[in-house]
Amino acid sequence: MSDRFSRQRGLIRQSVVQGLRVHFASEDTMPEPFKEAMMCLGEHLGVETFPVTPAEASYSVIWSGEGAVKVGFNPNKIAVTYDTHGIYLDGRVSVSAVDPVYEPSIATIAACMVWSEILRRSQAYTPVEIPKVSVSVNVRVNENSLHTNISQLEFGLKGHLAHQNVRETDDGSAHRRVLLRLDDEDPIAIQLRDALEVRALNESHFPKYPCLEFELPPVAPRLEGHLTVVGAGGLGTWCLHTLVEGLRRSKEQHVSFLIFDKDMEVERHNLNRQVIFTEADIGLPKIEATRRWLAQRLDNSKVNIVYELIDSMTHEIEACGDGADLDEFFDEPIGFGSEVTGVLDASEVFEHLNKTDLVLGCLDAMRPRVLADLIAAQRGLPYSNGGIANYSGEFREFSTSSLVELYGASIAQDRKVSSCQEDGEVPQSSMVLTNALVGAFQALSAIQRLSKHQTSVVKSVYWNAFENEFHLVHSDGRLDRAAQVGRLERALWPDVEVSL
Description:
- Strands 11-10-9-12-13-14-17-18 form an eight-stranded mixed sheet, sandwiched between helices. A five-stranded mixed sheet has the order 1-2-3-4-8, with helices on one face. It has a three-stranded antiparallel sheet with strand order 5-7-6, with no helix packed on it.
- Helix content is 26%, strand content 20%.
- The chain contains eleven helices and 18 strands.
- It has three domains: 128 residues; 49 residues, no CATH class; 274 residues, Rossmann fold (3-Layer(aba) Sandwich).
- The two termini are 46 Å apart.
């Protein structure tokens, strides 16, 4: 399943999404950033025609910023507004304008909430994640019927590419099962896969009116600093997209970036949720495509790129007092050849990390998340962590705690990759909405750090997109990571007794 929407089909009924008809009912008063976010997300979801005329519409999106809207229980109307105090789908009036630097992120979050409500009401979500579907022909074979002069058999499907797998029947017979799995791109496999239906018998689609309330602090007239973004996939690209759109609206900005990503090529199925990539980027390493995208949009920015965050980047390599070299305790760097010019090595990375103001983790495995958290804690910085799984997304900024304190030391040894890439160890479905919403919250945290605020006003937010429900925790504004350094180091290297 390598088409653009292949990873999304595990969560969304693509045929339903494709046919959605949505109208902007108050387009004249609706802010441009919100309309742009709605259109961008609609295109990435795969909505064929958007927006449509009132006569064609199944759903109307109403901007309630200037006048309250009675939302009632009309399943075809969705009211939305936002201001410096939050984002609302309950029909209330906005009381203050959002700073233009924040607005691309705020508009994106609001658009995610609206689109999720449309998907819920149209029953476009599947009731359970289906990360992989394959089609096989099952052939039962009686080995007792083999002629003695036949030593080997080969099965196939005429005119179709199939992969053979032989299994025991375990029913006391001498029979075997020969599974002939059709190639994922085979027309018959595609036809049967598209015909698959999974429905929940007791599924509820009552309208929801979620609201997010938080106080956005002032944005500094001059935004300057250094940001480290670990991961340029779904989360990382949406974080960069909403952040950069905000920076371009600032009075003055001078921001440097350090970008990590080990994926060696942009793939077609990335395009439906990794917002900064286009068809022209397919085949390029993600860090190279990201560097080009940033250079085209921020004239004053400096962008450095790295393939992978590894253990040795957490410390300057030096000899310990007993003569032991710490390098022996760390993972070896992975060689990628010379596909991209200007990629930093481990020693150069350490120098740039010492200049950073915020570490943003946009990763698909736990151990590198813990490494990123340690790098931030060592420098007394917040760690902005984003994560998605099926229908849920979570943003969390660690300013006084850590991943290890929250989840336990064992996560530092978890190297399993839950990836939406073709070669991911654990298949995972992914849709644009969760990536966009969490990435936008990470962008908000970056803007606040660049404005010299210690922490984000939001400590954490968890979103269940299937139910369009949120749990948001406000930050107390404290920043103290000192106690977390030793805890993170002991979890990462439990067998190392030396003081790192």
